[in-house]
Amino acid sequence: MHELQGVFMPEEYPHSAQKACVIGWPIGHSRSPMIHGYWLRRYGIDGAYGKRAVQPEELEDFLLNLPREGLAGCNITVPHKEAAFRIVEQANPQGLTPLARALAAVNTVWLDEAGMLHADNTDVHGFMAHFAASVPAWRAAGQRVLVIGAGGAARAIVAGFMQAGVAHITIANRTEEKAHALAAELQQALDFRGNAKGAGLEALPQLLARADVLVNTTTLGMTGQPALDIDLAPLPDDAVVADIVYVPLKTALLQQAEARGAHTVDGLGMLLHQAVPGFERWFGVRPEVTGELRRLLEADIEQGH
Ligand SMILES: NC(=O)c1ccc[n+]([C@@H]2O[C@H](COP(=O)([O-])OP(=O)(O)OC[C@H]3O[C@@H](n4cnc5c(N)ncnc54)[C@H](OP(=O)(O)O)[C@@H]3O)[C@@H](O)[C@H]2O)c1
Asked: What CA–CA distance (Å, rounded) separates 107 from 83?
């Protein structure tokens, strides 16, 4: 068996214990072992969750041989989400959730009782669950959503709002063609009945004036990246502002929104909530995103890990 790195090492557990891990290339400082390790302890589960660097050329062999590794499944991170989708689609076409199929990217993989591969994209659940918990009074009907960015994470956010049934979604991106393409692709894939369109970043002032919800899904504002240079002045007073960047915990965008008295939704909650469905699949308990877990992650981020 290859070595799993992380908080929990499989050797510490008897052979019968359920095991899972996060894979990526490079895997770096993934926070997933901290999240799942917390839940394993909290629920007294005899299981293990580690992390594993898997190169792109090893991915197929890895996913098709999870039992050989003693794994019930895994989380998938950059750059494997799209390739993992294609591998599961080939191995078990029935094993993809409708959402995974629409997004053509997966982040959570598990085996069923017959040993068949299944996969889902839980980033959508992660963002929407945290959004609903942060703004409990929010209702999708009639809402105009403005999403900045058209990369991998934007796909999940746009899909979440389309599924929720908002009225309008505009995707504003530096590379404008990508915004148009994403809006059209997801509108069709999810049979979205509202209005979906793309735009360039220069249209932001006019778009902000008509937005009920603003979400940053770009890397801008992340520690080590340029700031998201945006003036929220045109935004309606009761708008909700979300940022999926979680390092730093409170981005300049969220600070500006808070200063205007807007409702804000941070990025850490999405990270915590996206882990819930995977844990339930592998370990049989639907875990709770507690304040204690959040503080554990906050401390880790603040220490600059
Ligand atoms: N909270 C969570 O659980 C969670 C989950 C997933 C991702 N994230 C965060 O979300 C962010 C995006 O991740 P991703 O996987 O979607 O990345 P990605 O696929 O590389 O997309 C990056 C996006 O940022 C835009 N961008 C990058 N540099 C820019 C610049 N200088 N000016 C204007 N736009 C710029 C890109 O525009 P172009 O298309 O023009 O290049 C693209 O829309 C990261 O910070 C990541 O950590 C958070």
From this structure: 11
Cβ of 175 below 6 Å from ligand 1? yes
* CATH H superfamily, domain 10-121+275-302: Leucine Dehydrogenase, chain A, domain 1 (3.40.50.10860)
C-alpha span between 77 and 156 (Å, rounded): 14
What is the structure's pLDDT at 254? 97
Q: How does pLDDT run across 25-70, given as a tens digit for each residue?
A: 999 889 999 999 999 999 999 999 999 999 999 999 999 999 998 9
Q: Return the pLDDT at 8.
A: 42
Q: Is 158 in the pocket of ligand 1 (CB under 6 A)?
A: no
Q: What is the pLDDT of residue 305?
A: 63
Structure tokens belonging to residue 107: 């982040």
Please give the mean pLDDT across all residues of the chain.
93
3.40.50.720, 3.40.1260.20, 3.30.530.20, 3.30.450.20: CATH of 125-266: 3.40.50.720
Q: Parallel, antiparallel, or unpaired: how do β-strands 117-120 and 108-111 relate?
A: antiparallel
> Which of ligand 1's atoms lies nearest the C-alpha of 150?
43
Nearest CA, atom 24, ligand 1: 218
Nearest CA to ligand 1 atom 9: 245
pLDDT at 14: 42
Return the SS3 of 199: strand
